[in-house]
Amino acid sequence: MNKEQEQIRKKSPIQIKNKKASFEYFFIEEFTAGIVLTGTEIKSIRLGKASLVDTYCTIINGELWVKGMSVSPYFYGSYNNHELKRDRKLLLTKREISRLASATKQTGYTIVPLLVFIDPKGRAKMDIALCKGKKEFDKRQTLKEKEDRREMDRAMKSFKH
How far is CA 95 from CA 36, 64, 91, in A? Predict the structure, then answer.
């Protein structure tokens, strides 16, 4: 990911993150995909009413789908409202999808959504990553590193005062 793409994500008013992903997986390769949404779904996402808890991606018939993504019904949606959890298609190039398909055939690899954001043109985008699951000792190591960073930050704050 280059600096320009990173700036777009930081400027986005909506950033729906999958917070558990970095704890559960090692990220091998990241992609940015468009999401096929209905009218009330994009309105709910722009209000920040979505969740990536327990979501995953799968490839069906050469197309990439996100499963388990929760988008709350739009308050003003009336009878046109969408379902809370439905499978949503992700838009990537055929080359990227085939690369992901060949990688996920290996044991231990999966595709995980990381972030949903709104690009400058008002479209919803999703960052996904090809991931390898962490073992229990890797998770303990991650927690230890996080705790060490906190301790260093505390020490630096007390040192400044």
Answer: 19, 12, 12
**How many CA atoms, within 13 angstroms, populate the side-chain half-sphere of residue 19?**
3
Rounded Cα distance between 52 and 17, Å, is 7
Task: Take residue 3 and report the two structure tokens written for it.
Answer: 């600096």
Residues 6+ apart with CB under 8 A from 88: 35, 36, 37, 41, 65, 66, 69
Q: Please identify which residue in the block is written with the tokens 């050469």.
A: 62
Distances (CA, A) of 73 to 34, 48, 70, 141: 20, 12, 9, 39
pLDDT of residue 149: 87
pTM score: 0.78
Q: What are phi and psi of 158, to 5 degrees?
A: -70, -30
